[in-house]
C-alpha cells in the first residue's frame, strides 16, 4: 500500500481480505516480498539454511563421491523454489556456489583444501568433463526464460498482468526498458532474445504479425529488413496472403524474399490456430531443461566419460578416476607444479623415484604388477606397456 494510505482504509481492507497489515520486507509462502531492488539481507536466510546443512554433514565420514551426491540432489535443489520466483543478486549466487565448492573439496583440520578445478568447469555434464552439477546462474536464467515464455504464450493471470503493466499494446519484440520497472521485469526482458532466437510460428489462420513475428522460420522480417520508421498499422500474415503481399510497408525486395521462403518452406494458410513452438524441443513444447541447455556454455565432448561413469562402479571410485583423468590427484609431482618445494620419492618402489601420476599408475614396478594381475580379467595387452602408456597420455591430454 501507499505510505499515505489512511489507517481506516487499511483496517477495512484487512477485515475484508483477512490479511494482516505488515511493512515490507515480509515472507509470504516461503518467498520474501520486498520493494525495489533486493538487498543481500533478504536472501541471507537461504544461505544460513545451506550452511546448516553442510555443518551437519561435516561431522559424518563422507567420501568425495558422497559429497557429490549431496550437492547434486540436496544443496543444488535448495534455491530452486526462490529462483523460480525472483532474481538473485550475483553475490548471493557466488556465496552459495562457494559453499558448494568448499563442501565438495573438503577441509583438513579446519582449513579449506585446495580447489584443483574451477567450479565453472565442474558445472557441466559428465560427457563434457564435468560432474553434472547444475550452475545456479544458468538455472536462474532458465527460469527467467520460462517466465518470458509464459508472457508470449500463456493466458494466466500473472502473464496478463505483466502485459498490461509493461507491454500494453506494443509488440513484444519492440518492448523497451524504462525507469520505474521492477527488477524482475528487467531480467525477464533481458532474456527476450533467447525466445526470439529459439522459437517460431507455425502458420494456421495467419493471425500473427507479418513484420515482427518469426513465421518464416528464419527470423522476423523487421530483423532482415529494418524499417526506416514504425509501421502505421499492424498487418497480419493472412492479410499479406490475401493481397499477395501488396501491402503498405512491404517493398518489392521484401516481397521477393517472402515468396522465396514460402516456396522453400511450403507455408500455407490453414483453418487452425497459429502455433508458437519452441525449436530446441523435438515436440515444440517449452521445458526448463531445454532452456538450461541453451543457456550453458557447451564444452568439447569427452569420449572417456563412459569409462568411469556407470552404475556398477561406486561413485567415489568414479570421482577419483575423474580427478585422475584431470591430473588433480595430489601426488608429489602435482603439488610441486603448484610452486610448493618438497622432496619426493615413491614409497611403492625400491629406488624411490619421483612420485608422479604416470609412475604410480603406469610405469612403476608396483603398477606393472597390478596391471599384470588383471591382464586376463580385462584382456589388457600389458606385455607392451608402451600401448598402455600411450592410451593414458592421450586421455589425459584430451581432458
From TrEMBL:
Annotated Pfam families: zf-RVT (PF13966)
Domain Reverse transcriptase zinc-binding: residue ranges: 286-371
Coiled coil: none
InterPro entries: RVT-Znf
Keywords of the record: Membrane, Transmembrane, Transmembrane helix
Transmembrane segments: 26-48, 69-88
Keyword Manganese belongs to the record: no
PANTHER family, per database record: REVERSE TRANSCRIPTASE ZINC-BINDING DOMAIN-CONTAINING PROTEIN, REVERSE TRANSCRIPTASE ZINC-BINDING DOMAIN-CONTAINING PROTEIN-RELATED-RELATED
Protein's name in the database: Reverse transcriptase zinc-binding domain-containing protein
Organism the protein comes from: Liquidambar formosana (Formosan gum)
Amino acid at each position: 500500500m501507499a505510505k499515505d494510505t489512511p489507517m481506516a482504509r487499511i483496517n477495512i481492507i484487512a477485515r475484508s481480505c483477512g490479511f494482516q497489515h505488515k511493512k515490507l520486507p515480509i515472507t509470504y509462502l516461503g518467498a520474501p516480498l520486498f520493494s525495489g531492488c533486493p538487498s543481500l539481507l533478504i536472501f541471507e536466510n537461504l544461505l544460513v539454511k545451506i550452511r546448516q546443512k553442510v555443518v551437519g554433514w561435516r561431522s559424518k565420514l563422507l567420501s568425495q563421491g558422497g559429497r557429490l551426491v549431496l550437492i547434486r540432489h540436496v544443496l543444488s535443489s535448495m534455491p530452486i523454489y526462490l529462483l523460480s520466483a525472483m532474481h538473485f543478486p550475483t553475490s548471493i549466487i557466488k556465496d552459495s556456489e562457494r559453499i558448494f565448492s568448499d563442501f565438495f573439496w573438503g577441509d583438513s583440520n579446519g582449513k579449506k583444501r585446495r580447489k584443483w578445478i574451477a567450479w565453472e568447469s565442474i558445472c557441466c555434464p559428465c560427457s563434457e568433463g564435468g560432474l553434472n552439477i547444475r550452475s545456479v546462474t544458468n538455472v536462474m536464467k532458465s527460469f527467467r526464460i520460462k517466465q518470458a515464455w509464459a508472457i508470449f504464450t500463456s493466458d494466466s493471470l500473472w502473464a496478463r498482468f505483466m502485459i498490461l503493466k509493461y507491454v500494453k499494446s506494443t509488440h513484444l519484440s519492440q518492448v523497451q526498458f524504462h525507469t520505474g520497472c521492477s527488477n524482475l521485469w528487467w531480467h525477464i526482458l533481458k532474456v527476450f532474445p533467447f525466445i526470439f532466437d529459439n522459437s517460431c510460428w507455425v502458420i494456421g489462420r495467419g493471425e500473427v504479425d507479418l513484420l515482427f513475428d518469426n513465421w518464416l522460420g528464419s527470423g522476423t522480417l523487421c530483423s532482415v529488413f529494418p524499417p526506416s520508421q514504425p509501421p502505421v498499422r499492424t498487418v497480419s500474415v493472412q492479410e499479406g496472403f490475401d493481397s499477395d503481399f501488396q501491402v503498405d510497408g512491404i517493398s518489392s525486395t521484401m516481397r521477393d524474399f517472402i515468396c522465396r521462403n514460402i516456396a522453400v518452406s511450403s507455408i500455407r494458410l490453414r483453418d487452425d490456430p497459429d502455433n508458437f513452438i519452441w525449436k530446441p524441443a523435438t515436440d515444440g513444447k517449452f521445458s526448463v531443461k531445454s532452456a538450461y541447455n541453451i543457456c550453458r556454455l557447451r564444452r568439447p565432448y569427452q569420449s572417456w566419460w563412459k569409462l568411469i561413469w556407470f552404475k556398477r562402479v561406486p561413485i567415489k571410485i568414479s570421482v577419483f578416476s575423474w580427478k585422475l583423468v584431470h591430473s588433480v590427484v595430489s601426488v608429489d609431482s602435482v603439488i610441486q607444479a603448484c610452486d610448493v618445494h618438497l622432496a619426493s620419492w615413491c614409497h611403492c618402489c625400491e629406488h624411490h623415484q619421483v612420485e608422479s601420476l604416470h609412475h604410480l599408475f603406469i610405469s612403476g614396478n608396483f603398477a606393472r604388477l597390478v596391471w599384470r594381475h588383471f591382464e586376463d580379467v580385462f584382456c589388457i595387452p600389458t606385455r607392451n606397456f608402451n600401448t598402455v602408456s600411450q592410451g593414458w597420455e592421450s586421455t589425459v591430454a584430451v581432458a
